[in-house]
Methyltransferase domain-containing protein (Streptomyces camelliae), 229 residues
Amino acid sequence: MTPHSADEEAWTIYGQQQLDRGYSPPVPERIDWGFWPGVGPGAEIIGDIRGKRVLDIGSGPGHHAVHLARTYGALVDGVDLSPTQHRRALNDHGTEPGVRFLCADVAEHLRRTQRSYEAAYALRTFGCVDPLHLLPALCDGLVRGAPLVFSALHTDADGQGPSSEPVVRQGYVRLRDQEPIAVRMWVLSPVLWEELLAAHGFDVEVSELLAAPDADNPVVVQLVRARRR
């Protein structure tokens, strides 16, 4: 099994479990980059995206893409590797104006598409793709000056912090009454993210850590805004 197929299998299982549960997240009134409502900035950190072609990296059930289209007038392509996640998006939002959902590896999609994107974002999904696979394609697929905004895990529920090397680790996605699903993750330090982004044509403008409001919860999410050089 290749890393690509391992990622697809894990997130296909996750999407199928959500389909079996009949769970559809509502379209949010606000973008939350972490796991906690109201913590950190909202979609305004992306900048002015009205009428612009925007890429949602790992769009899942599609509710964030719909929010940006409805609230900000963006033209959003939601790309997800998992066919079951893609099915969830189509089931709920397949006819939504201003939104298109694609089932593909995002780097391969960027290499095939004929038009460049004017912005890209990822909510907690960026660290689930090998950055050495994704970043070169993003550099080629975004116009000069385009913002790239993403959140990624910084410290997990066990208190394990980020790595200073671009190495993969095993994480888990847990749903109630289901066996944990093992997923590949890149949990990297802010300095390493900045170095990797710089090496692939991006300048970091904002990097901040979003902590859980509950002091007993060790989870921390990193939020990054970079710009295509």
